[in-house]
Amino acid sequence: MSETSVAEKATSGAEEMTSVAEKTTCGAEKAASAAGKATSGASIELESLTKRYPGNPQPAVDNVNMEIKAGEIVVFVGPSGCGKSTTLKMINRLIEPTGGRIRIDGADVTDMDPVKLRRNVGYAIQASGLFPHMTVAQNIALVPKMIGWPAARIRSRVEEMLDLVGLDPGEFHGRYPRRLSGGQQQRVGVARALAADPPVLLMDEPFGAVDPITREHLQDELIRLQHELHKTIVFVTHDFDEAIKLGDRIAVLRERSHIAQFDTPEAILTNPADDFVSGFVGAGAALKRLNLTRVRDVEITDYPTVTVDDPLQQIFNKLRGSGVGEVLLLDEHGRPYKWLRRGDMMRARGSLARAGTLVHDTVTRDATLRDALEAVLTDNAGRVVVTGRRGEYTGVVDMETLMNSVHELLEADRLDAVEHQQELAETRARQTHGEQEGAGGEKA
Ligand SMILES: Nc1ncnc2c1ncn2[C@@H]1O[C@H](COP(=O)(O)OP(=O)(O)OP(=O)(O)O)[C@@H](O)[C@H]1O
Ligand SMILES: [Mg+2]
């Protein structure tokens, strides 16, 4: 756990404790229950939101305007120090804004008691921020207890939350955080943030401290959870790939939280607003594009094939005629079996059983081009067989196919972007024209 997160949790915890007696409902609660769906998300509006830290003439967050829709995941990405955490923490007023307003489901929460606000806004941070002297169950029960839920309801809620994040309640209920793995701590952190069923969930690099594999799992779980819960989630990360995976929309932020682009992952990848965004999407844009494309969407090369039932003479002929000096041997079900090169048959004295090298890796038509590239790069001859639903041969992808596909994709993206810009320009021109005509201004 980082020092700041301990301090942060301690302060917010202490604040929370002082308010246990308070009973007033807050605007967000009212708004959510008025809409009759206390469990789903709430919209968030940031209006000219600004933070100036004392002693610094430059604001850390300068005049941010943003509308986040109920039930969407919005990811903030941007360079270190650009103001992501400050912006996020102003939403639940862990940091007090020095200017602007925050509305949750239409209700202005800028001047509301921050402690009450925090009951409606779950918060999960890197390294989980769990209280080390409390058990898993006590950590999860924190906010429900504070807002005065009856003990029985809290107990069943704790079990429910542990189930939800994939931890066995019997096993984990009474454990202390230090006896959990990083990924398990992070799951408990998410369970705690969700325990009082807040419509809004703020997550500040929640998966930043775990290994890449656990991170993938936690991301997949968050996507699954969100399918069930439909919260409004604001998620901060450094990692653009994480943003692409999780975000319904991504806000690319530059210094002082200025919004460089706020759009869907596809739009940002294929049509970055400016050089800053392209720079952030990075040299990896082409590789990331490979993740959005499937093998079935590109042209697959047909390869010379023979089957184990073919007469040997026919196999020899095919080998001799093969422009690539190689044929693919299929088994009796048409599935890839071995690569046969010229000379292999001679060395094996005509025995198919001894000749050639086994096909050890294949990709399906549903694999991404990135998966295919991985397979091609690790294959000693730089190609991979594409199989159909029953494992049957459908074609081969090699380096050349991949390179051509990527060029075509990027070129198509570029043309789309140009077309999109032309449409925008035409719409703008029509509007101006319409306005002029509406004003009675005939062209001379
Ligand atoms: N308590 C503070 N007092 C003064 N300046 C601060 C304080 N907290 C943050 N800042 C400054 O505000 C700016 C924004 O910080 P913030 O923590 O929001 O950045 P961030 O985008 O979350 O960065 P990172 O990706 O490194 O977490 C930075 O320049 C930082 O130095
Ligand atoms: Mg930060």
Write a brief caption for the model.
The protein is of the alpha/beta class. Helix content is 43%, strand content 19%.
Strand content: 15-25%
> Within the largest sheet, what's the order of strands?
6-7-8-3-9-10
Which cofactors or ions or other ligands sit in this model? adenosine-5'-triphosphate, magnesium ion
Give the low-confidence spans: 1-39
What distance lies between the first and last C-alpha atoms, to the nearest angstrom? 71 Å
Helix content: 40-55%
Number of strands: 17
Radius of gyration based on Cα positions: 29 Å
Query: Which structural class do you get from the secondary structure elements?
Result: alpha/beta
Number of helical elements: 17
Q: What overall geometry do the principal axes of the alpha carbons give?
A: flat
Name its key features.
17 helices; six-stranded mixed sheet; binds magnesium ion; disordered N terminus; binds adenosine-5'-triphosphate; alpha/beta; 444 residues
Q: How would you explain this protein's 3D organization?
A:
The structure is a single chain. This protein is α/β, with parallel strands linked by helices. 43% of the residues lie in helices and 19% in strands. The protein contains 17 helices and 17 strands. α5 (136-146) crosses α6 (151-164), α5 (136-146) runs parallel beside α8 (182-194) and α6 packs across α8. The termini are far apart. The relative contact order is 0.09. The model is unreliable at 1-39 (pLDDT under 50). Bound molecules: adenosine-5'-triphosphate and magnesium ion (MG). Adenosine-5'-triphosphate is lined by residues 53, 56, 60, 80-86, 238. Adenosine-5'-triphosphate binds at residues 53, 56, 60, 80-86, 238.
